[in-house]
User: Fold this.
Amino acid sequence: MLRKIILSVLGVLFILGAVLFANYLIDNKHKPKPVIPKMVKTVLTDTVKNSTIPIVISANGSLTAKQRVELYSEVQGIFKTGSKLFKPGQKFNKGEALIRLDASEYYAGVQSAKSSLYNSIAAVMPDLRLDFPNVFQKWQSYLNSFDLNKTTPKLPEISDEKENYFITGRGIVSAYYSVKNLEQRLTKYRIIAPFSGILTEALVTEGTLVRSGQKLGEFINPSVYEMEVAISKSFADILKEGESVSLASLDHTKAYQGEVSRVNGSIDATTQTITVYIEVKHADLKEGMYLEAKLNAEKVDNAIEIDRNLLLDTEEIFVVNDSLLDVIPVKPVHFSSEKVVLKEVPDGTIILRKPVPGAYAGMHVKAAKDMSSTSDSIQ
Assistant:
């Protein structure tokens, strides 16, 4: 009997609890949901104003001397000590001897050939006096001017056919050209500086035996340099000789001014680039120095220039319309390392100046109002 009473009480309590819990759920169902405040990001903006944008091409390259001579020996001999050491860094003026080789043995052979030529002409003089009295005097004058210690003078001009047969038949003409050939080779024992410059490489030292065909060193003019850069083929018809070029060291601590000296007429089939040569003069420049060049290629009308990270992969940019972000299509016409030039962006369009993380079309934004970041015109 007691058990039935306890079960009845528990049943009543369970039903009462269920009713109270149901009423609680009904009451909470009609309570308003909490309002989550919308986050509005503050952005930096610019107002578009189309203008003429100059296209500047950046390229890097190393300097090489415009005037460069690789020194080779065409003869064999002992390298003789000169007035200046043959060492890298040594300066020579135009006309000074860079290298002298011992030519005493060869010089003796040249003198012997010159003496034989002189004797051959002297031997025919009696016959010339008898058979060709009208040309005797000019050959006599030639002999009088003949000096074994000087370069062999040019033979007198032969005036008629008989004189030609007579002189040629005595072997005088062939002997003359043999002597001139020997004299020409004798000059190769002495290498003269073709211009004022500096020795950048020296592969031999005084007293060593120099062989024919051996490389001796390199000689450059340190006052004029050239830089070779590769430019996209799209600028092949735009770049012209004489175009001014701004140059700077890679750390941008020094600036120089140069000009386009040559433009290659062919395009590299592998890289589809064209080679441009820039001439520059400055006392601070050295061969092998790396510089950055900025070439003015062309000008684009009705365009703007913005940071590359503002351009989307879909060739669109974000704009601000009534505090909402939107995207519009644009036409990129030139890319640089940091900037991009765009066309087809209407004047007065408000665009972002800096990228917004997580930006999407329809996003609520607010333009910055402080003095340092107010909307400016971009062009």
About this structure: The chain has five helices and 23 strands. The chain has a mean pLDDT of 85. The chain has five domains: 1-31, 43-53+301-378, 57-65+222-299, 68-96+193-220, 105-187. The helical segments are 2-29, 104-131, 133-145, 161-169, 172-186.
